[in-house]
Amino acid sequence: MGGIQGDVVVRVTINEKGIPIRTELLEGPPALQSETMRAVKLWRFGRGIFRGRKVDAIFDMTFRFVLR
């Protein structure tokens, strides 16, 4: 994207089905933020399980954009 590289960090909350229900941008170059957030909302994740029960889960993801 226009010669820009760097890390975008997103906090993701998924429901018990692995679907993102909340995303929060924590840091990253402005030119990379919107596309990263759009993509994360389309992803599907494994289910969160705690002590044998399905639960919502919160985690941070780092996306590294590197020009080669």
How would you characterize this protein structure?
The protein has 68 residues and is α+β, with helices and mostly antiparallel strands. Strands 2-1-5 form a three-stranded antiparallel beta sheet, with helices on one face. Strands 3-4 form a two-stranded antiparallel sheet. The relative contact order is 0.36. The chain contains one helix and five strands, in the order E-E-H-E-E-E. Strand 3 (48-50) and strand 4 form a beta hairpin. The radius of gyration is 14 Å and the shape is elongated. The chain has one domain.
Structural class: alpha+beta
Overall, the morphology is: elongated
Which range does the strand content fall in?
Answer: over 45%
Radius of gyration: 14 Å
List the uncertain runs.
Answer: none
> What fraction, in percent, of the residue positions are helical?
10-25%
Mean pLDDT across residues = 93
Strand order of the largest sheet: 2-1-5
The helix/strand order is EEHEEE
Distance between the first and last residues' Cα = 12 Å
Sheet with the most strands, sense and barrel status:
3 strands, antiparallel
- What is the count of structural domains? 1
SS summary, helix count: 1
Number of strands: 5
